[in-house]
Amino acid sequence: MTRNAGSSTQENHFGQLLRVMAEKIVIFCRYYVPIIVLLPYRTLQFFYQIKTQVPIEPKHSSSFITDSEIQSEFAHHAPGVAMMNNGSFGCCPASVISALHQWQLKMLRQPSHFLLNELKNRILESRTIIKDLINAEDVDEVSIVDNISTAAAIVLQQTAWAFAEGKFNKGDAVIMFSCTYGAVKNSIEAYFSRAGGSVIEVPFNFPLNSNEEIISEFRKALEREKGNGRRVRLAVIDHVTCVPTVVMPVKQLVKICREEGVEQVFIDAAHAVGSVDVDMQEIGADFYASTLYKWFFCPPVVSFLYCRKSATHSDLHHPIVSHRYGNGLAEESFWVGSRDYSPYLVLPSVMEFVNRFEGGLKGIIKMNHDAVVEMGKMLAEAWGTNLGCPPDMCASMIMVGLPACLGISSDEDATKLRPHLCDKFGVEVRIHYQAPKDGEVGSTTGYVRICHQIYNKVDDYYKLRDAINQLVRDGFTCALEINEA
Ligand SMILES: Cc1ncc(COP(=O)(O)O)c(C=O)c1O
After folding, report:
1. Residue nearest to ligand 1 atom 13, measured at CA
2. Does the C-beta of 148 come closer than 6 Å to ligand 1?
3. Which residue, 58, 170, 373, 417, has most beta carbons within 10 Å?
């Protein structure tokens, strides 16, 4: 009895034990298995999302980005402002901003691991995309830097050392056009002129009718200096000038440099990638720097410096010296101290964005060029003025003459008219004062630089047209109105 009772108690205990275990297994399966299985899966999915944003070919189907998708990619732009100044600071679509935030988050989750173990490979991925975009020979020719000012410092500081070390002699020259970007001119002054170099400034006449006008001025200046026995160590040439804007015949200018014995050529191509075709093998320069934040949808600050393999790599250093000093420019540029490197990592997402357009980047370049020419012609006709150069000498920006009665007669007038147009009429454009040539009367002295980027609409340009017409009707002149304001 006792034994039976004992055995039934044991059975009861055993049954209870089984029940408890079964319940625990059910709880475990219901709550923990999903966590154990799904958490790593979701984590992998989150990070893999970033990793899989590798370049894809332009689409060939009806699934191209739609107008409304484009507008929502730029819904963060200030409402009510017609933005026709993409050339100054570019634009960044929402999908790329989101990728930027994902990278920032990924870095902040475990900064040491990310910055010490992962960053280098991610930057290499971006550099490889750039290498392919510009048809460079080797990825080691490509260094990612913040902006053109940094790239110019890298190229120019090696010239200062060359003077200091006796490789260059006092009076050796750098050649540049008068329209060279102000910040780059300052770099020439700070590194080259201060070290004992002289500057040959080639006149850049505007308006222009043909590439030949640019080429002949350049050749003339080089021949003259050669005749004087001057050694030209470096040429600094824009690919797309800022204001007045034109696309320079860089391939021909580099060829002339080679023929005339210029030692190195640096192309400031701030506006190039995303607005013109860029091919390093074709252009043949020693150094070539483009932003990717102006016309290639990257956030500020992403740019690159290409240094041809044959250029003197050993003397090229990033102006910020950090741990990677002496390991080659690309490596030095990958680590310039502790900072947020996320902007450098969005290149795969940018490629994905660009390839949502028919024809990919080439399609965007053509569409922007055609549109800016059409809008430029429309404005010139409405104001009774002219374009600053033939359409085939411009990319996604073009200069349009402004009515003479606005009285733009100094750089100051141009600088003040820009915010006036923005505040009063909600139009963002860049205004340029073009000084008349010696003895010239009646030439156009005021130009507007208009840009076209994928988010622009015809109405933006109508708004500009009407704003200028309104100023003319009101009898506005820069001298009176802006100075009084
Ligand atoms: C010809 C040229 N170079 C350089 C820059 C910009 O330099 P950074 O990227 O250093 O601001 C610009 C900007 O408009 C430019 O037009």
Report:
1. 88
2. yes
3. 417
Q: Probe ligand 1: pick from 236, 237, 243, 291, max atoms within 8 Å of CB?
A: 291
HSE of 156, CA atoms in CB hemisphere, 13 A: 30
Tens-digit pLDDT profile for residues 292-302: 999 999 999 99
Report whether residue 270 contacts ligand 1, using a CB cutoff of 6 Å.
yes
Query: In degrees, to the nearest 5, what angle opens at C-alpha 403 toward C-alphas 398 and 408?
Result: 90
Q: How far apart are the first and last CA of the chain?
A: 112
Residues 6+ apart with CB under 8 A from 432: 243, 244, 399, 414, 446, 447, 448, 449
pLDDT (mean) for 352-369? 98
Measured from the CB, is residue 413 less than 6 Å from ligand 1? no
**Where are the domains positioned within the chain?**
106-354, 360-484
Cβ of 146 closer than 6 Å to ligand 1, yes or no, is no
Confidence of residue 439 (pLDDT cuts 50, 70, 90): confident
Q: What is the pTM of this model?
A: 0.88
Using a 6 Å cutoff on CB, does residue 291 contact ligand 1? yes
SS3 of 206, please? Answer: coil
Residue of the CA atom closest to atom 5 of ligand 1: 270
Asked whether 85 lines ligand 1 (CB < 6 A), one says no
**Candidates 3.40.630.30, 1.10.620.20, 3.40.190.10, 3.90.1150.10; correct CATH number of 360-484?**
3.90.1150.10
Distance from the CA of 480 to the center of ligand 1, in angstroms? 32
